[in-house]
Design brief:
With 383 residues, this protein is an alpha/beta fold. The chain has helices at residues 11-24, 36-40, 44-53, 64-73, 89-97, 107-120, 141-153, 176-195, 208-213, 235-242, 365-372; strands at 5-9, 30-34, 58-61, 80-83, 101-104, 124-129, 158-164, 202-206, 221-224, 256-261, 264-268, 286-291, 308-311, 314-319, 327-330, 342-349, 352-354, 380-382. The chain has eleven helices and 18 strands. The strands form two sheets. Strands 1, 10, 11, 12, 13, 14, 15, 16, 17 and 18 form a ten-stranded mixed β-sheet that branches. An eight-stranded parallel barrel has the order 2-3-4-5-6-7-8-9. Residues 34, 36, 84, 166, 207-209, 223-226, 233 line the site of pyridoxal-5'-phosphate.
Length: 383
Amino acid sequence: MNSTSYIELSREAYQNNLDFLRSYIKKGTRISSVVKGNAYGHGIDDFVPMAESMGIDHFSVNSADEALEVLKARTNPKTEIMIMGFIANEDLSWAIENEISFFVFEFDRVRTAIEIARSTGKKARIHIELETGMNRTGFDQEEITRLIPLIKENRDKLEIEGLCTHYAGAESIANYLRVEEQKRDFKQMAELLAEHDIIPKMKHTCCSAASIRLPDMHEDMVRIGILQYGFWPSREIFIEYLKGKKDKTEPLRRLISWKSSVMSVKKVEMGEFVGYGTTYLAQRDMKIAIVPIGYSHGFSRSLSNTGRVLINGFRVPVVGMVNMNNMAIDVSELEQVKKGDEVTLIGKSGDVEISVASFGELSDQLNYELLTRLPTKIPRIIN
Ligand SMILES: *Cc1c(COP(=O)(O)O)cnc(C)c1O
């Protein structure tokens, strides 16, 4: 059955981004590909095997259910999976059984993991997350002093896979001091653990923004989400990267395109309203095209009367309210528009391009949100 839209992923663009990341990131530092939120909307099922074919052998997800998706999608049984956030205690034995590593940031999870390891004889692979200022998850200084004896007593049940933290706002230079303090605290706590002979296989602290801004913190692994998909974590980080570079060309390429097609074309007379309610009044005789995409497909209602899409190489406005399953676009200026014409919601058409953020002159932070809202059920195609 045909879908009302489909998402295309470009292999070439991904290879380009990986080449860039590998040249930028310290030699010997491993890249963990962050694929939470259905691979930032790109689709875990298709994205994971493509990334594996380009040498990625480590994936990070937020929760156990996402880990299961990666486990099913991976083509190489040696590909590693790491859970950074939620795992219900009932699912911990599944994770341990499948050699999936996970962050620990509170005592209950550590104790439960030790219990499971004791009863199954299979070591739990843990990443000790340190609280350094994000104030989300992680052991603080006081808790670490209590964690040390617990780990020492259970060495045979735990694989200390990692020692990690997450920076609070590395995408903004205004947070410079806070991030510096986090770096200092991470190093101090890592030293304290080392004094007690708790030495992780890998240290990892950097997300995309921190990987660009803090090259001295690349350590053994970086956790790269948004950059690998060809988006900058913020405008500031992009400027920071370009500063002092002779070559000012954009090193990244977007993987994703999102395409639909015209369902019908109609004329609207001057003085008529378009769509539900009275938000759009035709100021002249118009021609509009109906596109079978609405907010149920991830095209936000807030883009009503403000969004833009591409058709036949032109950028045209959304008129009226975005409905659950449809929206109208103004094609009055275009001579030949007909049923079946391709409509680009994200990506290129002819010489024009629509990035996710320019959905509606929105801020870059919204890239994350708009991408992850793309429904799983839209078919993904790799080309
Ligand atoms: C989401 C996340 C990342 C990746 O963030 P990007 O900005 O997309 O690179 C890294 N680490 C943790 C703990 C995360 O939650």
